[in-house]
């Protein structure tokens, strides 16, 4: 499970930072990549990585500002040419359906794979046996959402050696124990699954937020997250600018991480007014409030280790 930043800048493409796109790599977990936002030239950024567009299973759009969606139609289209045949689901605010439909139909683009577009509301928008994705509305000039991705706990591994020591050979009993069933052997001995299965593997939580002012829902999304990805368009001291343009400062992002009990914070959506020399300062500001802070850069990867 890794986060890979394809674009980390605010507003417009810049030489040092392309506009927003974040790949959530779940290759080990489900052989898939989930994409969060697709700013212009996201597919060009992907060309410089090992990410295969056909692996993209889901695309989550935070909001409809151009710097988060202008790369989407091209990416969807190219995925067809690159051998993508498996279904893609796009989640996004109301209007995302029309945007995709108009872009693809006017350009007479025909996809060779099934595409489902889901317009979201607050709540759990996706759930399977592995993950649940919850969304909440943030505070931006237009509806902007934050996503909280919760990996479900998994049962611990079977302690096969211990079972064999107890004289049980691999087979149906192994399976029953792994499924949490109590087994009575032919000789009358009772095997409790708790003794032969390791502790549950705790699921991880990642919160990826769209553009936003400091707000209550950001706190809820970031609650106890292993990684919070929060915009920090402005440096501390620019609270008025941040408020007027519906964005956050480094301090505000760090304050959300602190209040929410997140484990790690990564700042992104950095304004191009800050050149490379200023990035360290932005991190320092956030670390005054929340020490475990990093700043995103294009092509940076963050691993989210097992607990
Ligand atoms: Zn933006
Ligand atoms: Zn925006």
How would you portray this structure in words?
There is one protein chain. It contains twelve helices and 16 strands. With about 300 residues, the protein is of the alpha/beta class. A hairpin with a 7-residue loop joins strand 8 (about 130-135) and strand 9 (about 145-150). The chain is globular and about 75 Å long. The chain starts with a strand and ends with a strand. Bound molecules: zinc ion (2 copies). One zinc ion (ZN) binds near residues 63, 65, 140 and 211.
Task: Record keyword descriptors for this entry.
alpha/beta; 16 strands; 24% strand; 307 residues; binds zinc ion; seven-stranded mixed β-sheet
Lay out the secondary structure.
Blueprint: E1 2-7, E2 21-26, H1 27-30, E3 32-36, H2 42-47, E4 56-60, H3 66-69, H4 72-81, E5 88-92, H5 96-106, E6 115-119, E7 123-127, E8 131-137, E9 145-151, H6 160-165, H7 172-178, E10 183-184, E11 190-191, H8 193-196, E12 205-209, H9 216-222, E13 227-231, H10 239-244, H11 250-260, E14 265-268, H12 276-289, E15 293-295, E16 301-303
Parallel strand pairs: 3-4, 4-5, 5-6, 12-13, 13-14, 14-15
Antiparallel strand pairs: 1-2, 1-16, 2-3, 7-8, 8-9, 9-12, 10-11
Bound molecules: zinc ion (ZN) (2 copies).
């Amino acid at each position: 499970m890794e986060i890979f930043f394809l674009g980390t800048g605010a507003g417009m493409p810049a030489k040092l930072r392309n506009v927003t796109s974040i790949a959530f790599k779940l290759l080990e977990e489900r052989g898939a990549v989930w994409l969060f936002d697709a700013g212009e030239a996201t597919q060009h950024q992907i060309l410089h990585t090992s990410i295969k567009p056909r692996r993209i299973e889901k695309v989550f759009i935070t909001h409809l500002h151009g710097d988060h969606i202008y790369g989407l139609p091209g990416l969807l289209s190219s995925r067809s040419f690159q051998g993508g045949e498996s279904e893609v689901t796009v989640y996004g605010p109301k209007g995302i359906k029309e945007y995709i439909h108009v872009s693809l139909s006017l350009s007479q683009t025909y996809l060779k794979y099934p595409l489902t577009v889901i317009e979201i509301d607050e709540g759990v928008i996706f759930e399977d046996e592995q993950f649940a994705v919850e969304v909440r509305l943030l505070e931006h000039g237009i509806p902007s959402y934050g996503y909280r991705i919760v990996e479900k706990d998994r049962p611990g591994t079977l302690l096969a050696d211990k079972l064999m020591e107890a004289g049980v050979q691999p087979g149906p009993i192994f399976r029953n124990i792994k499924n949490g069933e109590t087994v009575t052997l032919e000789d009358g001995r009772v095997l409790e699954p708790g003794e032969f299965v390791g502790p549950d593997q705790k699921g991880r939580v990642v919160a990826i937020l769209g553009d936003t002012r400091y707000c209550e829902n950001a706190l809820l999304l970031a609650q106890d997250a292993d990684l919070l990805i929060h915009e920090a368009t402005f440096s501390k001291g620019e609270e008025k600018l941040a408020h007027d343009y519906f964005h956050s400062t480094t301090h505000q992002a760090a304050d959300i991480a602190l209040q929410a009990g997140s484990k790690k914070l990564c700042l992104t959506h950095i304004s191009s007014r800050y050149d490379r020399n200023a990035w360290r300062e932005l991190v320092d500001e956030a670390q005054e409030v929340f020490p475990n802070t990093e700043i995103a850069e294009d092509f940076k990867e963050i691993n989210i280790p097992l607990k």
